[in-house]
Specification:
This protein is α+β, with helices and mostly antiparallel strands. The protein has one domain: Nuclear Transport Factor 2, Chain: A (Roll), CATH 3.10.450. The protein has three helices and six strands, in the order ααββαββββ.
């Protein structure tokens, strides 16, 4: 079983890889059956199951941003999960269907909830 420090280290590695557009690095600490959920305004707008689906989405997402940076501002541990508070900023690399244009900056505050199994990340929920 992982200690809280080990869990935090896995999360920090994941965020560092995300910021560097390093999909291989993002995948390295994920469980093969990882579940990813993106939740906005209390609605799940994306749900993926399995490392291959996660990898495919992560590679697609790389093309959307020319720059992106998640900064962990707080870490909270519970028995079943670790929740991190995040400041997020990114610069769009392409126009989006919602009207946002390439070159525009996005700033968000959100949180991510991580769950662990077999010393790997088994679930990630990104909530904004």
């Amino acid at each position: 079983m992982l200690t809280n420090q080990q869990k935090q280290s896995l999360i920090e590695d994941y965020v560092q890889a995300y910021n560097a557009f390093d999909v291989v690095g993002m995948l390295k600490n994920l469980h093969p059956e990882v579940v990813f959920k993106n939740i906005a305004n209390d609605e799940v707008n994306m749900e993926l199951a399995g490392k291959a689906a996660f990898e495919n989405q992560a590679n697609q997402a790389k093309a959307i941003f020319s720059e992106r940076q998640q900064t962990i501002t707080q870490v909270d541990f519970s028995d079943e999960s670790v929740t991190i508070q995040i400041d997020y900023q990114g610069v769009l690399a392409q126009n989006l269907p919602n009207g946002l244009k390439a070159g525009e900056k996005i700033k968000l505050n959100g949180r991510s909830v991580f769950k662990f199994q077999e010393d790997k990340i088994i679930e990630i929920q990104d909530i904004s």
